[in-house]
Amino acid sequence: MVNPFVEEIVSHVSTATDVPRDEVRALIEVPPKPEMGDYALPCFRFAKTLRKAPNQIARDLGERIRPGGRIARVRAAGPYLNFYVSQTEFVRETLSEILARGGQFGRSGVGAGKTVVIDFSSPDVSKPFTIAHIRSTAIGNSLCRLYEATGWDVIGINHLGDWGAKHGMSIAAYKRWGDDAAIRENPPYELFNLYVRYNAEMEKDPSLGNAVKYWTQKLEAGDAEALRLWNWFREETVKDFKRIYGLLDVTFAEYTGESFFHDKVGPVIDELKAGGLAVESEGALVVMLDEDDMPPAIIQTGHDTSVYFTRDLAAAIYRKKTYDFDKLIYTTDAGQSLHFRQLFKVLERMGYEWAKDCVHVPFGIISFKEGRMSSRRGNVIFLEDVLNRAIELTRGIVENKNPDLPGKDAIARDVGIGAVVYADLDSRRTRDVVFDWDEILNFNGETGPYVQYTHARYCSVLRRYGGAVPPSGADLSLLTEPETVAVVKCMERFPERIRNAAETCEPSLIAGFLIELCTEANRFYNAHRVISDDLPLTRARIALVYSITAVLAAGLHLLGLKAPEEM
């Protein structure tokens, strides 16, 4: 979406300097303080071509660019040229755009005609969802929504961990202690208990590892009994996964896990051999990457079993053939950074030019206060327990504050789950997170429930108004107070924040924006009555409040949160 105020500044500066409009546009900044102007142009870029000091360039441009139209004042401040726009025009044009587009405000078509494949969540079959999976799931889901909001065709893929030695261990554990009735009653949790028990016993008796190798090889070879058990475990687990995804409002275009690529690995290995990339090393097949300061990438073990790396190669090639993507994003923890560096480098060496379009979006790990989680030792927190506890806590708060509120169960669900998701997205994704019940379920301060409550509060104002919303013919020129202008300025930045969040794969930019908007909106609300005897002013302020609710709801959606109208 084009910002007409920025475009007017760009036009003036480009004409005065002969610098292309795109280059000038990329230089425009928003000053940190309102008194420094609405927009600023750093003049360092022009020093070489204009053969003047940046301070002098700012002064010269300030004298050449005359106020008029949308620009109310121009002032040089050292090497910066600060622009002050007409506040009346700014409020009118920005709010008119929001009122016209409603929940579509902020969306753009910058990615129109392009396809992005986003690989995220990817839990292991035969285990329940743990809190460790919330990061990839929440970040990936938000990225899907951000790219969709910028016009891309989005393909969300859940690349399940459903092949390899850990599944040989699940079969071995079932064969030793499995109870069909217990598995049918509570499949992922019972299978997980068997997995943990087998690991514990294997530490005492390493010979149990032989059964794991036996069933892994049987599975790889297509043994009927191994495949029957594997299919049963997979189907039951995925069914449970989909139930959790339903709570989180997360969907996927496909659930093609590692197993889908098992029969596609052979051709990839043949291709690596034919290209002279695959070499033998200590009985295994590897691709040497020492020239790129990386260890060898193992593509096949000495037992001729496929490995995760080669299945990922096959998956990337398959996805390019199937979707002809313009970008392929992998959302995993930072611990897999080397794996993806190797993966992209091997794809490049295989001659796939599109390897440059593959991106790893790493994130920090979640740990307990006591240390990192370990599936093998059963030291995990199940995600469903976290969500249920959050919902229960929220229900208590809602019951205490508004006992007569209808639909309390749905509100408790939306706000409780929103608290967990927002807590994961509100900081830079590369930061490690220490899981703390008190912090994650804190409903005060800069949290998801705070944003949702602010949205509900302004929805209640619209209900009290009682007239048509948004009101037609509102005189937006009446909205001149500093608090009002500050809210509008904040909302005007929403489209750019969406683009930046998508480009940098950083949902926290949206989370931070929502807190900024809530802060400015509440300053306005505390300083001015929305509904008064002054009907023209009331209509104008109702238009502003409606705009706030529309932008808050749109921002919450981008994070994967609901926007309750009552709380």
Whole-number radius of gyration? 28 Å
Percent of residues in helices? 40-55%
Low-confidence stretches: 373-377
The residue-averaged pLDDT reads 92
Quote the CATH topology of the domain at 4-85: Gyrase A, domain 2
Largest sheet: 4 strands, parallel
The name of the CATH architecture of the domain at 4-85 is 2-Layer Sandwich
Derived structural class? alpha/beta
Straight-line distance between termini:
33 Å
CATH superfamily label of the domain at 4-85: Arginyl tRNA synthetase N-terminal domain
What global shape is seen?
A: flat
CATH class of the domain at 4-85: Alpha Beta
> Beta-strand percentage?
5-15%
The strand order across the widest sheet is 5-4-9-10
What is the tally of helical segments?
A: 22
Give the strand tally.
Answer: 13
Please summarize what this structure is.
The protein has helices at residues 4-17, 21-27, 47-50, 54-64, 87-101, 133-149, 165-177, 180-185, 187-204, 209-220, 224-248, 265-274, 308-323, 337-349, 383-401, 408-425, 437-440, 448-465, 482-492, 494-504, 508-527, 535-559, and strands at 39-42, 71-77, 80-85, 115-119, 153-157, 278-281, 284-287, 297-300, 327-333, 358-363, 366-368, 371-372, 433-434. With 567 residues, the chain is of the alpha/beta class. The strands form four sheets. The chain has a four-stranded parallel sheet, sandwiched between helices. A three-stranded antiparallel sheet has the order 1-3-2. A three-stranded antiparallel sheet has the order 6-7-8.
